[in-house]
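Input sequence (147 aa), recorded before submission:
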Amino acid sequence: MESFFNEIFDYNFHCNKKLIEQCLTLNTVPLETVRLFSHILNTHHLWNARILNRPSEYEIWQEVDVKDWAEMHYENQRSSFEIISNANNFEKRIDFENTEGRLFTNTLQDILFHIINHSTSHRGQIAIDIRNNGETPISSDYVYYRR
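Predicted structure, token format:
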């Protein structure tokens, strides 16, 4: 399980890094792209914090300046790899409070997979936004990453 999560977090890191690099070259990053990618970063941070039983430093829809994306992304990745490397049971139950204050429990593997799935979903929305703003979005398909 550890190797699987290391692989898909590498994929996620690669795609997000390419997206950050693309956005840094744009004269103007579309507002919806800023909103959605900030959300990806914030929620990745939030899930890491929940797993580690720490407070989150960000709100889920807080906008992050594009120039700060790379550092935040790197820190999210570092924290996730630390979590994966130190996990001795991916079926471990994680208790957490959602953003509305409701209590839930999920396994570590559920949460780790959710981080990746959530990011992939919003990157798809970002690709549409970038295309709608006259640019060509990055390719983020997993099979292309594996080639």
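Checked by second reader. Helices lie at 2-25, 31-52, 69-86, 108-132, 142-146.
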